[in-house]
Every structure is written in structure tokens, then in C-alpha cells.
Design a protein that fits this description.
single chain; about 35% helix; alpha+beta; 4 helices; about 160 residues; binds methionine sulfoxide
């Protein structure tokens, strides 16, 4: 039983500091990547406000396949280079999208999504998965979110792939 709670009224930097500590503690010593992805998506869902989807797609035979997540049911397979997730996986670069409707090829799993951030999880020099967060609020994600989430996957990425 774990009892991690986001700090009340925290600024983003503090929120991400606490999220990182909780994620580290939660995954320490656990080698099963799927179990860790499940707990990390639940933790993000609990810590970060204004999300309608938070979870992972795993790289399986050069395709992204739906992994553990929180939110509504989602599309299962995404080819490399397609949508925001496929672009992050193909480029190895975080995609920060203020307006999903302006992103060429965006894949709308939930019509409520307005903005999105996708961070590649790189393990052993290759993209093992992507972490995808969606929000119903336009421009919900900024550079502080990008930095915090990139730090998260850098810290615990080897436990996710
Ligand atoms: N919007 C993503 C698809 C995944 S869902 O948001 C969960 C994309 O364009 O890749």
C-alpha cells in the first residue's frame, strides 16, 4: 500500500520534484516494466491537474502498442511517424503540442483532447516507449512540464523498458 499525494498549492517545479521522488520510490527494485508503467500512469493522473489521458505506448516490432494508462479507451496501434506519439517515437524528441487540431496527422482518441505532450522513453539508446499526456485545456503543457517529464523518464526510464 502506497500513499503518495501531491503537495497542496505547489508550483510546477515543486510538484514535479515530489512526483519524481514518488515515481522513484514506487518503481525502485521492481523489474517489471508493465507494472511500473501502470503505477506511473496512475501517479501522474493523481499528481497533475487537467488531464484527460495519461499513459504509455510501447515499441513492439517497430510499432507503438497501447500500454498501461488512465483515461478513456484509446487506439491500440500507432505506426512510427504517425500522430503526435509516432512523431515522438520516430524522432526521439519530445512533442509539445499546444493545439492538437493544428498538428498534422494528430490521432484523436478522445474528442475532448485539446493539447498534448509526448515524451520518448529511451532505454539503451533506443526508444522503448513513449509517455503521452492529453488535456482538455488548450496549451495546458509548457516548458516546465517538458522539463519535469523528461527528468522523470531520464530518472526511471530503465525501469520502463
Ligand atoms: N493523440 C495521440 C494518440 C494517442 S491518444 O492521445 C491516447 C497521437 O496523435 O499520437
Amino acid at each position: 500500500m502506497f500513499d503518495f499525494a501531491p503537495p497542496a498549492d505547489a508550483d510546477k517545479a515543486t510538484l514535479y520534484d515530489d512526483l519524481l521522488s514518488a515515481a522513484d520510490a514506487l518503481t525502485a527494485g521492481e523489474p517489471d516494466a508493465i507494472a511500473n508503467m501502470a503505477n506511473i500512469s496512475a501517479l501522474i493522473w493523481q499528481f497533475l491537474p487537467n488531464l484527460n489521458w495519461a499513459g504509455f505506448y510501447r515499441m513492439v516490432e517497430d510499432q507503438l502498442v497501447l500500454g498501461p494508462f488512465q483515461g478513456k479507451t484509446a487506439c491500440i496501434r500507432i505506426p512510427l511517424g504517425r500522430g503526435v506519439c509516432g512523431t515522438a517515437a520516430a524522432s526521439g524528441e519530445t512533442q509539445l503540442v499546444e493545439d492538437v487540431h493544428a498538428f498534422p496527422g494528430h490521432i484523436a482518441c478522445d474528442a475532448a483532447s485539446a493539447s498534448e505532450i509526448v515524451v520518448p522513453v529511451i532505454v539503451g539508446g533506443r526508444v522503448a516507449a513513449v509517455l503521452d499526456l492529453d488535456s482538455p485545456v488548450p496549451a495546458r503543457f509548457d516548458d516546465a512540464d517538458k522539463a519535469g517529464l523528461e527528468m522523470l523518464v531520464a530518472r526511471i526510464g530503465s525501469r520502463l523498458g
